[in-house]
Amino acid sequence: MANVIFYEKPGCINNTKQKRLLQNAGHTLDVYNLLTIPWTLEKLRPFFGNRPIPEWFNPTAPKIKSGEIIPRNLDERTALYLMIANPLLIRRPLIQVGEVCQVGFDIEQIKSWIGLNDLGSVIEDLETCPNTHQ
Length: 134
What we know:
4 strands, 15% strand, 28% helix, four-stranded mixed sheet, Glutaredoxin, alpha+beta
C-alpha cells in the first residue's frame, strides 16, 4: 500500500469521500490544507502533468464561475501565478505518491496507479462539488 500525500480543502464533502476510499484500500494518508500551503511554481506545476490548462482549475471556484477568470485563455505561467495567489482556483485534490503527482480524483486512474478496493457500484461524481447543485 502507498503513502499518499493528499492536499484538500478542509470540509470538502468529496475530499472526505476520496480520503475514505484511499484509506479503505489500505493506503496511509498525509493530509494537508491546500489553501494554506506556500505554493511555488516549482512545487505546484508537477501536479498537472500534460493536462490542458483548463483541467488544472476548480470549475466551481467563484472567480471561474463568474467568468472573471477564463482558464482556456491563460498561458501556463499566468495560470500558475493565479492559483498561487488564490488556491481556491486549484482543482482538488492534489495527490502525490513518491515522485508521482496528479490533480483530481479519477477513480480508474487511481485504481491502476496505486489501487483501490472493489468499488462495486460507486458511480457518483467525486470531483464536482455537491454544494454547487443547490
